[in-house]
Amino acid sequence: MMAVVLSLSWAGVTPEQYDAVRDAVGWEEQAPDGGCLHVAWFDSGALHVTDVWESQEDFERFFAERLAPAVEKIGIVGQPDTQLLPLHRRFVMPGVSGAA
Question: Which helix (DSSP H) or strand (DSSP E) does residue 87 occupy?
């Protein structure tokens, strides 16, 4: 298996909706298998996410089993623009850990 980078942009998703999905899924309290890194930010009325996963299969399982049901429950509409690409290199600065 090859590690992948997920790049996502979802127009119309608000910080409140993102927080509601995060709370419903609980990925910070119960990290998904294969998840390595999650970064989210907002600009121009859109949610942007960059994730690193150990494999595309790990992300797809997390999406199907945990994320998609929460997105539907919260009522987020539309579809994100996404890309899943092979990871070339991963480096985490010394001393960086945990949530912010």
Answer: none
Asked whether the whole model's pTM tops 0.70, one would answer: yes
Q: Are 8 and 47 in contact (CB under 8 A)?
A: yes
3-state secondary structure 25-79: HCCCCCCCCCEEEEEEEEECCEEEEEEEECCHHHHHHHHHHHHHHHHHHHCCCCC
Whole-number pLDDT of residue 100? 72
Task: Return the structure tokens found at 81.
Answer: 């623009």
Cβ within 8 Å of residue 42, ≥6 positions away = 14, 15, 18, 48
Judged against a pLDDT cut of 90, whether residue 53 lies above it is answered with yes
